[in-house]
């Protein structure tokens, strides 16, 4: 009798576990909203009105040769670190506005690959 009681108890526990797991998956899939839509593309930083000079492969050398001091930020629009640094870089460029001897510039590495390759920059993501 003890063996039958143990077997019945194990079968009931297994059935309860299956029911619990089944209910969990039914609830979690029923409440999920379905596939998410990707967010809309962000506007290009070069299209924004800022004091940062945006350089291309064609304008890079000429711009640097005419200026005494230029700090260039090579960035990728999708990079979280670049997105975080962007407002600080723009603020610094605003503070240097009017000083032609010290300028801040930026190069979009995803769109301007000539200088990116020339200076040995490689995407990390």
Task: Give structural notes.
The protein is of the alpha/beta class and 125 residues long. The protein has two domains: 1-37; 45-118, Glutaredoxin. Helix content is 47%, strand content 14%. It contains four helices and three strands; from the N terminus they run αβαβαβα. Strand 2, helix 3 (80-95) and strand 3 form a beta-alpha-beta unit. It is globular, with a radius of gyration of 29 Å.
Mean pLDDT across the residues is 76
* Strand content range: 5-15%
Low-confidence stretches: 1-10, 21-26
User: How many strands, what sense, and barrel or not for the largest sheet?
Assistant: 3 strands, parallel
What structural class is derived from the secondary structure elements? alpha/beta
Q: How many beta-strand elements?
A: 3
- SSE string, helices as H and strands as E: HEHEHEH
Shape: globular
Topology:
Blueprint lengths: L1 H30 L21 E3 L4 H7 L2 E7 L4 H16 L6 E7 L4 H6 L7
Parallel strand pairs: 1-3, 2-3
Short structural description:
Helices cover 47% and strands 14% of the residues. The chain is an alpha/beta fold and 125 residues long. The chain folds into 2 domains: 1-37; 45-118, 3-Layer(aba) Sandwich (Glutaredoxin).
Descriptive tags:
125 residues, alpha/beta, Glutaredoxin, 2 domains, three-stranded parallel beta sheet
């Amino acid at each position: 009798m003890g063996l039958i009681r143990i077997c019945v108890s194990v079968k009931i526990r297994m059935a309860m576990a299956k029911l619990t797991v089944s209910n969990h998956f039914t609830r979690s899939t029923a409440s999920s909203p379905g596939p998410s839509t990707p967010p809309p593309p962000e506007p290009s930083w070069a299209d924004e009105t800022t004091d940062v000079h945006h350089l291309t492969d064609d304008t890079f050398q000429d711009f640097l040769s005419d200026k005494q001091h230029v700090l260039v930020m090579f960035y990728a629009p999708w990079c979280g670190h670049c997105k975080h640094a962007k407002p600080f870089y723009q603020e610094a460029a605003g503070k240097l506005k009017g000083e032609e001897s010290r300028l801040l510039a930026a190069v979009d590495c995803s769109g301007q690959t000539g200088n990116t390759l020339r200076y040995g920059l490689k995407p990390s993501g």
